[in-house]
Design brief:
With 190 residues, this protein is mainly alpha-helical. The protein has helices spanning 11-23, 28-43, 63-82, 87-104, 106-110, 112-126, and strands at 48-51, 54-57. Keywords: Membrane, Transmembrane, Transmembrane helix.
Length: 190
């Protein structure tokens, strides 16, 4: 087998492409950031920091509150992955929980969890599902005049009078807002 021979697509390549297709249909990165933001918010109030022989306990009186906020952020991140239709609710809830974590949970997990949850929530609110590309219908028949499709004239930018009007211009605007009839965009009431 030479270097120019293309390798047969294996199991890893196929799974990677499936994961890539799945990831592209949902707010994946928003969910990941929200989940990663929930971890330090829930962890730091219960952590013990060892500095030499000194143990620094960072337990707060609102330790349960920060645990609840962290778990809710992780659940919101998972819901962003598997239920993409709740993206606006989950994004707004993640932003609000990140803001609440500042006073409750050691500055929102020392600002790391706060910033990750805030960024993930904003990404979730801003995410919009992609529109699948529409297939273009195949035009049958030949070309009309000058490379234009059959049935159209080569110059479609100029308005031409309809057949049977002999060049007379008859406005077809029934809204009453055309500048041609003097309304100048204003409606009259009465």
């Amino acid at each position: 087998m030479s270097a120019e021979t293309p390798a047969a697509p294996g199991q890893f390549t196929r799974r990677r492409q499936q994961f890539r297709a799945w990831r592209g249909t949902r707010p994946f990165w928003a969910g990941l950031f929200v989940m990663l933001g929930g971890l330090p918010i829930a962890y730091f109030p219960y952590a013990n920091l060892q500095i030499g022989h000194l143990t620094l306990a960072m337990a707060t009186t609102a330790g349960a509150g920060s645990l609840i906020i962290g778990v809710l952020l992780v659940v919101l991140g998972v819901s962003l992955w598997f239920q993409k239709h709740v993206r606006v609710f989950a994004g707004v809830a993640a932003i609000l929980l990140a803001l609440v974590s500042i006073p409750v949970s050691n500055l929102g997990g020392f600002l790391v969890g706060f910033l990750l949850a805030l960024l993930g929530g904003a990404m979730a609110v801003a995410w919009a599902p992609g529109v699948p590309p529409a297939s273009q219908p195949v035009q049958e028949g030949g070309l009309g005049k000058g490379d234009a499709p059959q049935g159209t004239g080569p110059d479609t930018t100029a308005f031409q009078p309809a057949e049977g009007t002999a060049g007379a211009y008859e406005p077809n605007d029934l809204s009453g807002t055309s500048p041609a009839n003097g309304a100048n965009g204003r409606h009259s009431a009465g």
